Amino acid sequence: MNSIIKLRHINKIYNEGKENSVFALKDLSFEAVKGDMIAICGTSGAGKSTLLNIIGCVDSPTDGKYYLEGEDISGASPKALAKLRNAKFGYIFQEYALINNRTVFDNVLIPLVFSKKYKYDTASRVKETLERLGIAKLRKSMVNELSGGQRQRVAIARALINEPDIILADEPTGALDSKTGTDIIECLKEVNDTGKTVLIVTHSERIASYCKKRINIEDGVLSAI
Ligand SMILES: Nc1ncnc2c1ncn2[C@@H]1O[C@H](COP(=O)(O)OP(=O)(O)OP(=O)(O)O)[C@@H](O)[C@H]1O
Ligand SMILES: [Mg+2]
Questions:
Q1: Closest Cα partner for 217 from 15, 31, 26, 16?
Q2: Residue 121 pLDDT
Q3: Of the residues 52, 65, 82, 120, which has the maximum number of CB atoms within 10 A of its CB?
């Protein structure tokens, strides 16, 4: 099967050549096929977010190859990476990364402002996406008035609004109680059921058990389980 994401011999060194350099990823190779749902596990500082940032074109590796849908994007410029990021990925962060003093509607609309794909009918797109996530009633609420689970649903709606092929979630349930965490992972599973590729960083065995595959990172080195 063709890989949607293929990393080959990726190294990531922060502050290379300086006294405070960190060798965060070491000769890491990884592949995901379309429709995968993969848990990325490992202890704090292991390199999970670094890996997700490289996959999501938020950061570049120090060396190694990255093939996205078969295309070598290893040497892509920051501008080209930003374009790919917007077109291909939906990112969900642990701390939601929402704009707190704006409404739910505004937060979910934001990626469309930067998108070339959906220029028209943006309001109805936002409404549909909020309905899909069961938060249509909250559309006029300010984000800072919502519960953690509601905020995470807004973050998922924002990640889905551009219809990206790949959803990346960094500890999406880390700040939630276990019942709300279950709601959120089930929600991500539904997203996966629609054919999207979903990668989830998690510390939780229970959350990992919802995924079809699992990889483990320790000290920047990857092992499949
Ligand atoms: N921007 C940065 N500059 C320098 N070092 C960094 C930077 N980001 C991460 N690191 C270092 O790289 C290593 C991997 O960090 P990373 O954030 O990927 O870990 P993680 O597995 O996501 O940890 P956590 O579970 O705590 O979120 C750590 O040693 C961290 O201190
Ligand atoms: Mg992290």
A1: 26
A2: 85
A3: 52
Alpha-carbon separation of residue 93 from 90, 140, 170, 211 (angstroms):
10, 22, 5, 18
Taking only the tens place, the pLDDT of each residue in 128-175 is 999 988 999 999 999 999 999 999 999 999 999 988 999 999 999 988
- pLDDT tens, position by position, 3-62: 999 999 999 999 999 999 999 999 999 999 999 999 999 999 999 999 999 999 999 999
Please state which architecture CATH assigns to domain 3-224.
3-Layer(aba) Sandwich (3.40)
- Ligand 1 centroid distance, CA of 45 (Å): 5
Instruction: With residue 59 as reference, give the H or E element that holds it.
Output: none
Q: Whose CA is nearest to atom 9 of ligand 1?
A: 50
List beta partners, residue 66: 7
Q: Where do the domains of the chain lie? A: 3-224
From 19, 48, 204, mutation site for ligand 1 pocket: most ligand atoms within 8 A of C-beta:
48
Mutation test residue for ligand 1: of 49, 171, 199, the one with most atoms within 8 Å of CB: 49
